[in-house]
Amino acid sequence: MAIKKNGETSGKLGNTVTYQLLNKTVTRTIGVNNNPPTKAQLANRQGITIGNAFMKPIKAFIKISFKTVAAKNGMYPHNRAMSNLKLKAIQGTYPDLSINYANLLVSEGNLPEAENPAVVKTDTGLRFTWDKVKTFPRNIDQVMLMAYFSELNKATYITAGAKRSSGEDFLEIKPSMINEKMEVYIAFISEERNFVSNSTYLGQI
Fold first, then answer.
1. Residue 33 has what pLDDT?
2. Which of 17, 23, 105, 150, CA to CA, is 20 to 30 A from 178?
């Protein structure tokens, strides 16, 4: 049964269901499809499974890093990140699909990316450097850092690190994980938390 309340309709009516998605009313057809899935459908499902597994340990990061672009496109941050991952970073042929971490974005936006970023591993973590920026307001943007451990399905990250003007920051890694394989990323977020840059992939350590 569909219900209209305060001008908004939600619920099931016949073979359709209506619900609110952000500020939009969405109606879609529902039903059982007895046809066997195509290879493209199976590949899409596997891509979603891979994407969900990847994003599970970085939910809080994704919520911030895709917030602005997702809102502009009437999406949730998770959905925007998933769409981006499937479009740009899934590689291979079903059933042997995987993530190309070099093509993956862990943030998306219009702020300038890090200039000449680099990373060095130490005994206790990762030291990131980039070119300093002195011009307001970009000099007060804050760095976002991530080390993703693909073989552990874990991640270490910060979403509000040093300012662009500092030119460096440090990401501490647990001793038990310091020698594990890492995929490393850097991005920036504005001080008021409304704008972010695309992430830059710094390679595998």
1. 62
2. 105
